[in-house]
Specification:
This protein has 210 residues and is mainly α. The chain has nine helices and two strands. The chain has a domain at 59-202. The chain has helices spanning 2-20, 23-37, 40-81, 85-96, 104-107, 110-129, 135-158, 174-179, 182-202, and strands spanning 163-166, 169-172.
């Protein structure tokens, strides 16, 4: 389409040159028109590049929304589960063997520790979901999510049986298979934190938009 428009423009320019200029200036005008038409391929390339950039931006926006609200749903669901007796017993081996969190059982009972973790996870989910209204609060939520998933990923190293060796090679045990997905959630948390942090600075610029 762009090629046909360019050819039509060149023909029109040539016809306009013949009608508008006398013979002694027609050649000079034609050379000027030819030089101008040389820039058209560059303009076509620029337009195509802008279209590709717009497409990437749309894909990035979709990715950031799926990442953020996927985290929100995940944290809400696992946060609510922490108030059940089964989940409290399920996380006990992970927390008790963590060098960073074992002390919680010295302060709270089994269900109390689980309830506390559930409250924190739900609060983080709510903060993350506030991105359309407050980039700062969503950034705080993202930092909370980063800390949460750094801790859960560390369980892979501290929980007995998370790694099992077979023929000298480390393989994931049952606990490791359950926890390894948190690496992806950690990456999504870092990405949402970066986006929210950028949004905080865009608020200081009059032309900045979410």
């Amino acid at each position: 389409m762009l090629q046909s428009e360019r050819e039509a423009s060149m023909r029109f320019s040539s016809l306009l040159c013949k009608l508008s200029y006398p013979d002694h200036t027609r050649k000079r005008a034609k050379k000027t028109m030819d030089r101008a038409n040389q820039f058209l391929p560059a303009e076509e390339t620029l337009i195509k590049a802008l279209m590709r950039a717009k497409s990437r931006t749309s894909l990035e926006r979709l990715g950031i929304h799926v990442s953020r609200y996927g985290l929100v749903i995940t944290l809400l669901l696992i946060g609510v589960l922490k108030f059940t007796a089964g989940e409290a017993q399920g996380i006990q081996p992970l927390v008790a063997n963590s060098p960073l969190m074992f002390w919680l059982y010295r302060v709270f009972n089994l269900q109390g520790v689980s309830n506390l973790i559930g409250v924190v996870e739900i609060a983080i989910a709510v903060l993350l979901a506030l991105r359309p209204w407050s980039a700062r609060l969503s950034f705080i939520g993202s930092i909370g999510a980063i800390i949460t998933f750094v801790l859960t990923v560390s369980f892979i190293l501290s929980t007995p049986g998370a790694f099992q060796f077979s023929h000298g090679l480390p393989l994931l045990g049952d606990a490791g298979q359950f926890l390894i997905k948190d690496l992806v959630l950690l990456g999504a948390s870092i990405w949402t934190a970066a986006e929210a942090h950028k949004g905080m600075f865009q608020l200081l610029i009059p032309s900045g938009r979410f």
